[in-house]
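From the pipeline queue, job 12 of 40. The input is one protein chain; the requested action is below.

Action: predict structure.
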Amino acid sequence: MKKNLVKIVCALILFLPIFNIRASVEIEAFCFIDNFTQLGQGPVGVWVYTVSNADPEYSNGVLYIEEKEKGMYTVSVQLKNGTLTGQDVEVDGNTIKFGMNIEGVERVLVELKVDGNLIKGEVYTSQGPLKIEGNRKLPPK
């Protein structure tokens, strides 16, 4: 019953036009979190992140990391202007690696290490490595 109520509330909130994009992304993250049962363990979850010295359109966003089947992971990166999909996702304990195509031209590699509710690592670009850090988005208590 509670799970259905959360889904209904999330659906209603996501379609109300009165929220700005930032609030919408945070609410979407909360709704996505409801699908996870083991928050705080490993890379699976929703992460709000920042990338130091990145172009403004790529400098922050929300990472959605999900285990679809045992050992099969998906990564989606929600940016201000759209969503990117992680490719060749590899998870080894608290470490996750994946690639992404930026604007269909540049391929970047992301390597992240999870420490509780913190995530950090590097994004390897053609201009050199960039630091990435983030926090797990936890549902309100």
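Job complete. Residues 1-25, 29-38 have pLDDT under 50 and may be disordered.
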